[in-house]
């Protein structure tokens, strides 16, 4: 599905257009994901990973656009993608239909400007409207900024997946499992 388009004014005066990326934006999403993957180690993907395949991204965006539950909250500044957030069903099985999984990335240039908060607020409101009862995510244990944002929006830490990520230098980093269970707020 596609969310209602909104605007967010950044502290520097730039206007971010917040809307859903669709298959027509696949190249921009691909470029955004490659850039964010190379800016920090906080992305689960590396720039050379296979999910950066343009055809696959186009398929995913088409599926999300046509879904009645899954959605994207994408931030564009001057027509370029600077933030990418998606909420998708954990699994399409009856016992899982109440659960959404959230993934998010923002270009480093646009962090610390309230954009992530605006995108998160938009996503959680849409998730509720779409019938999700909880939204879950995994975050690098050393990503303090992201963990702070998630806690600010009602996510609680429920567990740790030890050594979930192995960086190119051989370092392991735990993954913190978080969930925002809407009726617990």
TrEMBL record:
Superkingdom in the source lineage: Bacteria
GO MF: acyltransferase activity, transferring groups other than amino-acyl groups
Lineage: Bacteria, Bacillati, Bacillota, Clostridia, Lachnospirales
Domain N-acetyltransferase: 30-183
Protein's name in the database: Acetyltransferase (GNAT) family protein
Keywords: Transferase
InterPro entries assigned to the protein according to its UniProt record, in alphabetical order: Acyl_CoA_acyltransferase, GNAT_dom, MshD_Acetyltransferase
CDD domains the UniProt entry points to: NAT_SF (cd04301)
């Amino acid at each position: 599905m596609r969310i209602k388009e909104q605007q967010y004014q950044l502290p520097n005066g730039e206007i971010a257009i917040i809307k859903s990326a669709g298959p027509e934006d696949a190249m921009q999403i691909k470029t955004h994901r490659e850039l964010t993957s190379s800016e920090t180690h906080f992305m689960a993907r590396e720039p050379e990973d296979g999910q950066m395949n343009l055809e696959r991204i186009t398929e995913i965006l088409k599926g999300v656009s046509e879904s009645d539950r899954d959605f994207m909250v994408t931030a564009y500044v001057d027509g370029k993608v600077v933030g990418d957030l998606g909420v998708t069903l954990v699994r399409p099985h009856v016992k899982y239909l109440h659960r959404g999984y959230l993934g998010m990335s923002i270009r480093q240039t646009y962090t610390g400007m309230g954009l992530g908060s605006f995108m998160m607020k938009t996503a959680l409101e849409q998730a509720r409207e779409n019938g999700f009862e909880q939204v879950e995510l995994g975050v690098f244990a050393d990503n303090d900024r992201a963990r702070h944002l998630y806690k600010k929006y009602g996510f609680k830490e429920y567990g740790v997946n030890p050594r979930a990520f192995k960086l190119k230098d051989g370092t392991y980093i735990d993954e913190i499992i978080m969930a925002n269970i809407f009726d617990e707020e």
